[in-house]
Amino acid sequence: MGAIKVLVVDDQTLICDGIAKLLEGEKDIEVVGKAYGGQEAIEKAEQLKPDIILMDIRMPGLDGVSATKMIKSKNPSIQVIAISVYEEDNLIMQMFKAGAVGYVLKDISLENLVRAIKNVYKGTTMINPRISRKLLSLLASDQKIGDGLTAREVEVLREVAKGKSNREIGEELYMSESTVKTHISHIFQKLNIKTRSEAILYAVKRGLI
What we know:
With 209 residues, the chain is an alpha/beta fold. Helix content is 53%, strand content 14%.
């Protein structure tokens, strides 16, 4: 695996530069740029084509939600991890609706931030445990199975929404990793989606988790 190209976005210069400096010490990560606002993030994403964007949410002018939405519409392969001090339900939902596949808090350790970047690069989600509990409880009162999903597929979808890898889902549900992949493939086909971010959004919208 080559170096993971990362763009760091935060309107606070000290934080943005600090995160970038820390990540530059990681051999598998290349910080390709920094942006200090939403509009600059869009421009840098277009120019630099990073693999991962660490996106602050509340910024003056164009915020992280709007920037994420615009970046994903033009460059769907770029994965966005929200990095914030805020835990409000509406911000969490807005970021996932915009296309983010991760949500971590700024008190995260460097080790866990690096792990989050690598996990998202490999195709899984990364959500702070407190954020995950909030996300999974937003529509937890509605437990309907929809769009032809089997009960087993809903179980798999629920674990996907928690940010677990295929291996971890297999261990949790006592099935092989290849069986998990098959279930996820069926889920994506039935829901006409292509990414785990879309799967999370569907699950939350329909109250399947």
